[in-house]
Structure formats: structure tokens, C-alpha cells
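Q: Fold this one first, please.
A: Sequence and structure below.
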Amino acid sequence: MVEVSASILTLEKENAIKTMYNLEAGKIDYFHIDVMDGKFVEKDTTELMKDYALTASHISNLGLDVHLMVKNVEKFIDEYSMLEPEIITFHIEATKNEERTKSVIEEIKNIGSRVGIAISPDTSIDKIKSYLPYVHMVLVMTVVPGKGGQKLIPETLEKVKALKKYINENNIDIDIEVDGGINDETASKAIESGANILVAGNYLITSKNIGESVKKIKES
């Protein structure tokens, strides 16, 4: 089953609550929270995303899909723990070594959230293979982290295909999420490659009929 995680990074503040309601009514599955610290990536969204995550948790029962594009992963796991996110995803490029990566995985599990591990476009899936039996999801970035509205990098879907092949061959039960440049045209390619959770931002938020746009992604 294909699920849609709506990135609310580019919401306009004055319309945020209304748009969140429209997204939920449009049958999205998660609110995708893009937490950026201004260090791991250039943009700093820490205050805005905390505000939006709090709002979403108060007005909706949908799960929060928290994507940490930050260096101090542990700090933000702690900050978001009170919101009981459905998923918390961290970047392998941020944790760097095996000991810290395993510690972060355990920390996320201990607060009751599912664990996601993310890789940027230039990172090989070989960097995360040893962790796959211990996490619930892999997030393959299909654009460079840190900016909304980018076009999907076609080569990243080859990485999704290779990842899907590997998890099938090794009988690993895990979700594959893709993030970046998802719309009604790229969704089908991502799903064909093996993704089952698709992050969509601008495509949904600027849509005149969010429900129809969500349906197009899910039925791609």
C-alpha cells in the first residue's frame, strides 16, 4: 500500500491550519516535518517546524513523520519526544560512526517512535545496509536536502531499486520513503522503483484539489 507524507515546510503561516485540515481531509497519511538546523543544511527551520508540529498534533490525529536534517540528532529526538511522532528519521551523514548510529536508533525506539534512516543523493546504500534489520524505514533523498521545490534527481531512483532488491533478497521488512520532487508524474517512477511512502510538498500545497492530488500519487 502506498502512503503519502505531506511536507508542510512551505506552508504560509496565515493559512497553515486551514491547509493542514485540507491535507488531512485529502487523505494524506502523515505530516512530514522537515527539521533543519542551519548546520547540517544551510536553512534553519527549527522554530517554524516545532510550531507546525505542535499545531498539527493539536488539530489532527495523523502521525508526525519527523525528518531530522540536523547535526545534533540526540537533542532533537529529545525535543520531539513529547509529541510522540510516528516516525523519526535521522541522516547517516550526521551520525557518521557505528557506535553513535546504533545509539540513536535505540534512543528513537525508547521513546516509542518508529526509526527511519536517511541517505542523501551522494551517499551509497552500502553505508546503511548493516542497520536495516534494526530500523523501520529508509528515506532516500531524491533531491539535495535543505530546500523545497526541487526537481527529482533521476539517478536517485536507481538507488531505490538497488535498495528494494537488497531488502527482498535478505527478507528484511522495511519501508522505503522517497523525498523530493514528487508529483503526479514522478510518483509512478518512484513506486515502480520500490518506494511505498512518498513525501510530497509543493505539489499538494499548491493543488486546487488536494484530495485528487493525493489520489493521483497513491494510484500512480
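Q: Good. Now the second chain.
A: Here it is, same layout.
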Amino acid sequence: MKKILIHFIAIAVCVFVFSFPVMTAESAPIEGAMLPEINLAVPVKDSDRSYLGLPASGFFKIPQIKAKVVLIQIFSMYCPHCQGNARTVNKLYNVIEDNPKSKGKVKLTGIGAGNSSYEVGIFAQTYDIPFPLFPDMDYSIHKAVGEVRTPYFIGIKINNDGTHRVFYSKLGGVNNPDQFLDMMLQLSGLN
């Protein structure tokens, strides 16, 4: 009886360990595919609306942002890696805005997985985030993008006809903002 129990536990552990990465990898946004439909409330701040090129109110989908490329950071205010990488991502925003190849064409935004508006606001204030952040308190967006770990970056290219495709989908932060932007421009075809 004891041997059967040990074999059962060993099989259960193997099934769990070997199935978990497969489930996560298959559900994350796939490069070359469309981004799952994400509906966000238009930001209240005029500067955020202007930066994203959005109307005064209502809801929008990511491909409606006035840009050629949108970089989305899935973060959590409770994620120590997101906290540690916040200043470098701010530098990425500045590098994007200072580069004539990307200014006005590449937009950066963040979605706080499991974070309320209040928590997203605290994160933005604490780390002086210069780009728009959106709450995802009920994890609905997080679920739509495959319940990825944080920080996670998704890059989408928006075509002239309004269609889009994911060209980048990876776990991890930004180490070197200049190199990261160069890679985004190259992968998206904007270079």
C-alpha cells in the first residue's frame, strides 16, 4: 500500500511539473498573431489621452492607440522585479521620445495585473511613471494574455489598415533602454 501511495504521489508531481510550463507557454500572446481583445477605459488625465491619441471619454482597444508600435508592460505594483525595473522602463520612455525614429510612432503603456486604480496610481507616483498605466483589478486582461508572470512585455505593430500583429512577447524587464528600443524598431520593421 505504501509503495502504491509513493508511486501515485510521484506521478501526480510529474504531471503537475511537466504540464505547467506547457499551459503557460501556449496561452501567452504568440508572435505573429493578433493580441487578444483588451478593452480599457480612456485615461482621465489629458496628457495620457493626448499621448495615446484617444478621445475624451469611453473605452478603447490597444490597436486604436495612435501609433505604429505599442509596447505593453504587464506589471504588478507588488512585483519586486517590476519595482526594480521601473526607473529603467522610465528611461526607455525617454529614449523613445528622444529618438526621431520612434517619437510619435512608438507608445509605451502598462497594465497592472490584479491592481486597482489606487494601486496603479501609487506605483505611478512612487516611481514617477511618465506613461499611462491601467488597472486590471479583476485579472481579466491578465487572463486574456495567458496569465503571464511579471514583468512581461508585449509589442504590437499597428498596420495602416487598422489590423495589428504581435511581434514581441517575452517575460522580463528592460536591461538597456537604447538596445531594447533598437530591437523593437528592428523586430517591428520601423527601423
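Q: Anything worth noting on the second one?
A: The first helix runs from residue 2 to 27.
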